[in-house]
Design a protein that fits this description.
The protein contains ten helices and 15 strands. By secondary structure, it is an alpha/beta fold. The protein starts with a strand and ends with a strand. It is an enzyme of class 2 (transferase).
Length: 309
């Protein structure tokens, strides 16, 4: 079974207003509410690919209930740890007159130690037949040590760990040989204390992550495409062109589609191409891709094998 773990999920409230002025009532012209969180998005992506999965994480209050219900409506089983407080609501306000956006991202509930232990106990039941995605930021009360503990459990219980977090704790987890990690170029530079990375440095540090213990490294380059590194191969695929509407969930789509494609026994090159096309499709959409344009987008793409000295 595939499991996703979102420790700090959210409801994203998207609104549009003509003006956004202080001390008066600003009326909205459009609104949209979406369940969100990196692992939550991956659960939706996997389900669209026809892959059953279970969503884990922390859930609190009426907002947490909404996220669980939206997952269950799609036939996704949920096993969240229920906590006091309320799962966060993030607000994104588009101001039409200024063609700009204001983003308010909340902290979310405080997680108690016994609730962390409850989540770890659920994860400890996974075995070598399972895959676990751990994606996104930590809520209050959850330290990076929890990520290390999950990585240890993956090594001991032999399940495949897919890790997607901006924290430098990823480097400390590599000794436990995660199945796949997905940094972007900015995160990779930060991990190795660089301002930015040249093309040669991207390949060097991407390969270094494999040498440090990762089985697969997916290095997202945004509109420039994606690099992939394993012990045997180094690949690059360009991203297709299109009008970017929303990049927020494109990385989740890329990662979910990539692992899902491997689960469906696509070859590494095919899975990479499918993943980047799907991620781009999400970027060109107001929400997650429906995969209807993925085959057409793939016509713009080519996978190249890299030779790294």
């Amino acid at each position: 079974m595939i499991y996703t773990c979102t420790m700090n999920p959210a409801i994203d409230l998207f609104v549009s207003t003509n003006n956004y002025d202080p001390l008066i009532v600003n009326r909205t012209s459009e609104e949209d509410i979406q369940p969100n969180g990196k692992g939550v998005n991956i659960s939706f992506v996997l389900k669209m690919l026809g892959i059953e999965n279970v969503a884990l994480g922390f859930s609190g209050g009426f907002t947490g209930t909404f996220i669980e219900e939206e997952l269950e409506k799609k036939g996704i089983k949920t096993e969240f740890v229920h906590v006091e407080g309320t799962t966060r609501i993030n607000v994104f306000t588009h101001v039409e007159s200024k063609n700009t956006e204001y983003k308010l991202v909340n902290r979310g509930p405080l997680i108690k130690l016994e609730q962390v232990d409850e989540l770890l106990n659920k994860i400890n039941l996974l075995s070598e037949e399972d895959i676990l995605f751990v994606s996104g930021s930590n809520p209050r009360g959850v330290t990076d040590e929890v990520i290390i503990e999950i990585a240890k459990l993956s090594k001991e219980n032999k399940f495949k760990l897919v890790l997607d977090t901006s924290s430098k704790v990823v480097l400390d987890s590599l000794k436990y040989n995660p199945y796949c990690i997905k940094p972007n170029n900015e995160e990779l530079a930060k991990w190795f204390e660089k301002e930015n990375l040249t093309d040669e440095e991207l390949s060097y540090y991407g390969k270094k992550l494999v040498e440090m213990g990762a089985e697969i490294v997916l290095l997202s380059l945004g509109e420039e495409g994606c690099l992939l590194f394993t012990k045997e191969e180094s690949l690059y695929v360009n991203a297709p062109k299109g009008k970017v509407i929303n990049t927020a969930c494109s990385g989740d789509t890329l990662l979910g589609t990539f692992i899902g494609s491997l689960k469906k026994e696509l070859k590494l090159e095919e899975a990479l191409k499918e993943a980047v096309a799907a991620g781009s499709s999400t970027a060109f959409s107001p929400g997650l891709t429906d995969y209807s344009d993925v085959e057409e987008l793939k016509k713009q793409m080519n996978v190249k094998k890299l030779i790294i000295e």
